[in-house]
Structure formats: C-alpha cells, structure tokens
Design a protein that fits this description.
Elements (H helix, E strand, L loop, with lengths): L6 H10 L2 H6 L5 E3 L2 E4 L11 E4 L4 E4 L5 E2 L1 H8 L4 H11 L9 H7 L2 H21 L4 H9 L4 H6 L3 E3 L5 H8 L4 H6 L3 E3 L5 E3 L4 E7 L5 E8 L7 E3 L15 H11 L2 E4 L2 H9 L5 E3 L7 H7 L5 E6 L3 H16 L3 E6 L6 H8 L1 H9 L2 E2 H12 L5 H15 L5 H15 L3 H10 L24 H12 L2 H9 L8 H15 L6 H7 L3 H11 L6 H36 L3 H18 L1
Parallel strand pairs: 12-13, 12-14, 14-15
Antiparallel strand pairs: 1-2, 2-3, 3-4, 4-5, 6-9, 7-8, 9-10, 10-11, 15-16
Bound molecules: zinc ion.
Length: about 600
C-alpha cells in the first residue's frame, strides 16, 4: 500500500483527518458507546454491524470483515487507487503533496481520466457557444423558461450549435483524437466515412458525478420537435442508472436536512434548486435504480418522491417505492396535479406552495391505495382482492413486525376486510418474494485459519498502550507468535516503537497491507476494553499461554524429528535431540 508517498506525509494526513467525519459523509453513523455504527456499505444488511472507532480512526464490519483506515475507506467506497485516496484526503486537510513523477502521469492517462478531460473540454465549448452572440436565442429560451443567469453558470449549461463538425474541429485543435471523441460519445461515424457531432441545435445539460467530474450530457431541443431529449450513450465513465443528476451540488444539503427530494428531469431539479429547495436529486429516468438508491443512502434514509402527475409517473413511482422500502428507506410521496412536474409547479404556484406540498407528503400506503383505487373498482369483490393483493406485496417488504402489523390493521380498516383474511393472504407470500433480488452478502468466513485468542488479545493491549510493546517483547520473540498475520503486525509495531513513531492503528494499516492482517488488526480494536488491573493480568496470562503453546509445538516438532532419526538408526542425532527435548521440558517447568 505504501510506496511513492513519503510516510511522514501519510502520517500527517491521517493525523489531521477524522474518519468519523469522512465516513459520515457517505452514510449515516449512529453513536454506539465509544464508537459509531451503521449498516455496512460493503455488503447488504439490515442490522448494523459496521463499526467506526473515533479513538482508533479505523472501521471494521463484523458482517463481511471489510476494514481499514480513512484511506482504505475512500479506496473501497469511491473505487479509488491508493494515491488518489491520499490526494483526496490531502486536499481536504490542506496538505500539499510533493510532485510525483511517472506513476501519477500514467494514472492520469488512464482511459477514464482521458474521457473526463474530453468531456471537460466539451463542457467549456458548449458553455462558450451559449454565451456567444449566436447563442442569444437559446439564452432567451432558457431565461423565458425561468432559468436564471446564475443557474446557467452553476450548472454549466451550454449550447450545441447547428454545425455538423463544430465540436470535432474544436477538440481537434486541442489534440484530441477522433477515437477518444467517439469513446466519449460526443461524435458519431458517418455512413460514407468520417464523423459528425452527436449533439446539434440543442441546449446542453452536462451530467457530473459526485466529485464534479463531467460524465456525459443531456441535450434538449429548443422547439417542440422530437425527441425532446437525447443523452450521451453509455461510456466507460457514464453508466446509466448509476449516478444521480445534481448530487454533486445537493449532497451537503441532503445530509444536513436528512432528507432527499427525488425528482425526474434536469429542469425539475434546477428550478426548485434555484428557488432554495436544495436537497434534491434527479433520477434522469422514470424509475430509480437500486444503485441510485444505494448512492443516496450514503446521505440519508429519508426520501420524498415527487413525480409527474401522469400515468407513467405513477407507475414509475410505484416501482421505485418497492425498491426503496426493500432497501430500508423511509419514503413518502408528493403527488403533483395531472400534467404538472416540479419545474412547472414551482413556476406556476411558487416555491412556498411547493414546500407546503413537500411537508404534506403522503405515506406509501395512502399513495399506493389511491393509485390502485383509481385503477380497480374498490366496490367490486375482485377489484378489492386485486387492490389488497397489490398492497400486501409492498407491506410484505417491511422487515419490522410492528410496521407490518400497523399496515395490515390499516388495510383491514380502510377496505373493510377482516384482518384474518389479510393475514391468510400474506402468509401465501414468501418472505420478500417479489422485488429485485439483492446480491447475497459476501461470505463472512474469508479469514483463513482461526487466530490464537491470546495473540489477538496481546495485539489489542499493545495497541492500547505503546509501553506494553517493549515489556511484552522482552518476554516474547516474534517466533513465539504462531500465526503469520499476528507476527507481521507485532513486527511492524515493534519497528515503529523502536523508531519512536506513533503506533496508531490507522497508521499501522498503511504498513500491514495483507488483507487478513489488516482485518485482524481492526477486529481487535472493537474487542471490549479492559481496566488497569484486568490489563496487567491479561498481559501475564497471554504471555504465559503463548509460551506454553510455543513449547508444546516445539516439543511436537522435536518428537517428530526424534522419530525420524530413530527410524534412520542415527544414534548420535537421537541423543542430541533427546537432550534438547529434556532441556525444553525443564524450561517449561
Ligand atoms: Zn460489511
């Protein structure tokens, strides 16, 4: 893990970073004694087994074993390479990294980085078009639609003009290859050879990822021609359904308000956003995907869905509802009048009325029941059975027995169906039968062999009190540790202590790159704390136990050697080994 970046800088960065702050930027952490806990972001679970230690600056999941320090968390969560994670944290705490030579240049030139760069150039090209004289009609169109000048800037809106090769020529002047432009989805091959610009005569909405890097583009016509919107195709950096429009701007507002308002289109996002409703994201599609929901869950578990008041919107909402409930999200629905979307609603009725609408959001139950009642005849027994059946599919998704009970009661009361009949139908449904199949949790037993508990406890104690490292290592040698993982950790601790360096767990992680050793390290940290007295006794017990075990294995080893020497009739060797055996036994007494 370590290498190109000097260790003192890594130490400095970790010293100025708070892992709780970093992780709470991605998922809601709850206090649990001296630690914090959350549902693990690395495997699917409904009860929290992901622990974060503010004292030790590490995290560990007892479900899947994933563990590490702040660097590791960013690497896993943001899918970063180690130098990228270091760079990100360094920037956060204002530390300037020494200029790197080759390795980073190579990394920068990876395909994704090249695509971001091409997209960035395209963003500025389209932006310039919009602010040029030729962009006046488009600018007027946007202003007439209620998009303010500053909003145009914030969202980097642009214009693709009428030329067939304007972007191609611009990018060529920047030494971008046609191949790369095509891979970025910006140009298309002509039948007769050559290429042309994908987007023409359209307003451009750049789509950024959470870190503000341009992934792709949405493009809207200026008149009523069709298709109204076209989008970038999927590219190595732009995968549909994996990002949420506007999250880069809204994530702090979402976390602070502990609620995300989900809308559909670009303007549905931009118009309320500029009027001050900033905890928004746009799904850019009719239904939310599981990946989008997981992305949002890093910031909040409370979501409000605002969808167009038409049939397609209703169906999309119902579909998203089930996935959200399955994912343990508290979701409410904000239905808008027919033919209205958040964009038109805010422009016609004002943002205050929109906020009131958000405040009076409906529960999933009332919303779904209302939609179903419009579709089926509630007076007819078949209609009634159909509605109840559909409602039960969603109710069945709740894990919590109390919530399920409440909804069953409510369903029974509102529809006039005896509770026992509802329960009978519910029993027919397999647990969470419908809905998306979630990937199973990774096996928890990825550890190779069990670790000697005495060795594990000693490591914990040494981590808690640096002075113990010397005391303990006066009585034990590295060879006394029976496991490659424990002896590796102890050797690093010893080395750091000798150098007079801090032996913090989060720092140790940088040296112990073996996955299972790092995991072991984190596990020990969440073992219960011992008091002063207990600690001294534990140290002595552990040392004694480790010595006994070591002796036992040495004797076993000698025993085998003696047997071999005997069968080889090597009298001299047998005698020497027997002597050794006697000495060892004496030592053990
Ligand atoms: Zn986990």
């Amino acid at each position: 893990m370590k290498g190109l970046i000097p260790e003192n800088i890594l130490e400095d960065i970790l010293g100025r970073t708070d892992i709780v702050e970093i992780i709470s930027g991605y998922l809601p952490l709850k206090k649990a004694g001296a630690n914090f806990k959350a549902n693990c972001p690395f495997h699917h679970e409904k009860t929290a087994s992901f622990m974060v230690s503010p004292d030790r600056q590490i995290y560990h999941c007892f479900g899947c074993g994933e563990s590490g320090n702040a660097f590791k968390f960013l690497m896993r969560h943001e899918r970063l390479e180690f130098p990228e994670a270091v760079e990100l944290l360094a920037k956060k705490c204002g530390i300037i990294l020494p200029q790197q030579s080759d390795p980073q240049a190579i990394r920068r030139d990876s395909l994704s980085s090249q695509l971001y760069k091409v997209n960035e150039l395209a963003v500025s090209f389209y932006e310039n078009n919009l602010s040029a004289n030729t962009g006046l009609p488009a600018m007027k169109y946007l202003l007439d639609r209620g998009v303010r000048q500053e909003t145009i800037k914030v969202f980097h809106l642009g214009l693709a003009g009428s030329g067939w090769d304007s972007l191609i020529n611009f990018l060529r002047s920047k030494n971008i290859s046609l191949d790369l432009m095509e891979r970025a989805g910006l140009i298309l091959p002509k039948e007769q050879g050559g290429y042309y610009d994908r987007f023409r005569n359209r307003i451009i909405f750049p789509i950024f990822d959470m870190r503000g890097r341009p992934l792709g583009f949405g493009a809207r016509v200026l008149d009523n021609s069709l298709p109204k919107y076209i989008n970038s195709p999927e590219t190595p950096v732009y995968i549909k359904g994996r990002n949420l429009f506007g999250l880069n701007l809204a994530k702090d507002f979402i976390r602070d308000s502990d609620c995300a308002v989900i809308v559909e289109g670009y303007l549905d996002f931009m118009i309320p956003y500029q009027e001050g409703v900033k905890n928004l994201v746009a799904s850019q599609g009719t239904a939310l995907t599981l990946e989008q929901i997981k992305l949002l869950k890093r910031y909040t578990h409370n979501m409000l869905m605002v969808y167009d008041g038409d049939t397609a919107g209703e169906i999309a909402t119902l579909r998203s509802l089930d996935i959200l409930i399955d994912e343990g999200v508290k979701v409410k629905i904000v239905p808008l009048p027919k033919g209205m979307d958040p964009d038109t609603f805010v422009r016609k009725q004002g943002v205050t009325v929109f906020k009131d609408k958000l405040d009076s959001a409906e529960s999933f139950f009332d919303y779904k029941l209302a939609v179903l009642s419009r579709r089926f005849d509630i007076q007819d027994e078949y209609g009634k059975a159909k509605i109840a059946g559909e409602m039960l599919l969603t109710i069945n998704k709740f894990d919590n027995a109390i919530l399920r009970g409440e909804y069953i009661k409510k369903l029974s009361e509102t529809m006039g169906i005896p509770q026992q009949h509802i329960l009978e139908e519910l029993r027919k449904l397999k647990p969470s039968s419908s809905g998306p199949q979630l990937p199973a949790a990774p096996p928890a037993d990825k550890k190779s062999s069990p670790i000697n508990p005495a060795e594990k406890l000693l490591i914990k104690l040494m981590l808690e009190e640096k002075d113990l490292i010397e005391t303990i290592m006066q009585q034990l040698t590295l060879a006394d540790f029976s496991d490659a993982r424990t002896s590796k950790i102890v050797s690093v601790m010893q080395e750091l202590a000798l150098q007079g360096k801090a032996v913090s767990p989060s720092l140790l992680m940088n040296y112990v790159s073996e996955e299972d050793a790092a995991q072991l390290l984190c596990e020990t940290i969440f073992m219960p704390q011992l008091n002063e007295l207990g600690r001294e006794k534990a140290v002595n017990d552990c040392i004694a136990r480790i010595k006994v075990q070591r002796l036992k294995s040495q004797l076993e080893h000698l025993h085998v050697q003696i047997k071999t020497a005997q069968s080889a009739k090597d009298e001299g060797k047998v005698n020497i080994l027997m002597q050794e055996f006697q000495n060892l036994i004496k030592k053990g007494d």
